[in-house]
Amino acid sequence: MSDGPAELQGLKQPENLIKNPRVKERADQLLKRLSARVPSLTPEQSSEVLEFLEEVAMEEEELEAKNTALQQESDRDPYNPDIYTLQGFHRIMKDKLAELERNNATAVMLALDLDHFKQYNDTAGHTAGNSALSLAGGLMKSAVRPGDVVARVHGDEFVVVLMNEDLETGALVAERVRTAISSMSTLLETSVPFSVSIGMAMIEQELIQTNYDSDEEFITALTALYDKADKAHYQGAKHNGKDKIGAILPDGRVYTAVFHTGPTDQSPVVAFQRV
């Protein structure tokens, strides 16, 4: 910029009109080209260029803010903004897997759906059904830790990722979720016997450590893991009497979690029974 008029060199001063650093850099480059081609810009012309660039900067900032707001809106469930949509789940899981890799930690994925939701939705109506979905999401969120992930992926189907857990400790958290959902009938004052069927699968190190070439490849891998948890959900819980927790263990087989009281501290202990 040293070859240009003083009015253009002023672009680098704090009092300049351009405040956005990214736009300021682009303006700097543009004005360098202008200075090289038209070194005799008048002060009036320089001022016009700066005013134009400021308008562009403001429009860019407004568009960026709108895009950010739209993305945040599409990432959050319309019935309960405290939990994610499927799109938001895909987005947040990139950060969560990176966190697991940094900490050399493990995590568990839960696939869940509400038992008897269709019965409630058909009898109470869709508005009441939407409120039930909101309540379910809130109960799941309250049963897990702040750093865990809760999302509604479709209809009454949810996914939960329990950070820094293995199958045994994850099953204890899943049991808290199951217990929380069992309160829905009372909270909604309905005779429909709400419960939840849950499937569990460990998040494999391969999924955590792989560098994916595209979003599509990442989503495909994440969906494959969800399918494993969903298999445990159907075989170990949904088709095994409902209101249960199924799990795929390292041997690849589906088990059902069974809880009993510990011998000393009265805390629950989990065992897995082959389906």
What does this structure look like?
The protein is of the alpha+beta class and 275 residues long. It has two domains: 6-75; 86-274, Reverse transcriptase/Diguanylate cyclase domain (Alpha-Beta Plaits, 2-Layer Sandwich), CATH 3.30.70.270. It has ten helices and seven strands. Strands 2-3-1-4-5-6-7 form a seven-stranded mixed sheet, sandwiched between helices. α5 (117-124) runs antiparallel to α6 (126-143) and α6 (126-143) packs antiparallel against α7. The relative contact order is 0.10. The model is unreliable at 1-15 (pLDDT under 50).
Q: Layout of helices and strands, plus pairs?
A:
Layout (H helix, E strand, L loop, with lengths): L5 H4 L11 H17 L5 H33 L10 H18 L3 E9 L1 H8 L1 H18 L5 E6 L2 E7 L3 H15 L2 H5 L6 E8 L2 H5 L5 H22 L8 E4 L5 E8 L6 E7 L1
Parallel strand pairs: 4-5
Antiparallel strand pairs: 1-3, 1-4, 2-3, 5-6, 6-7
Oligomer: single chain
Rounded to the nearest angstrom, the distance between the terminal CA atoms is 74 Å
Please bin the fraction of helical residues.
40-55%
Number of helices: 10
Name the CATH superfamily classification of the largest domain.
Answer: Reverse transcriptase/Diguanylate cyclase domain
General shape: elongated
Beta-strand segment tally: 7
How large, in whole angstroms, is the Cα Rg? 27 Å
CATH topology of the largest domain: Alpha-Beta Plaits
- By secondary-structure content and strand pairing, the structural class works out as alpha+beta
List low-confidence stretches.
Answer: 1-15
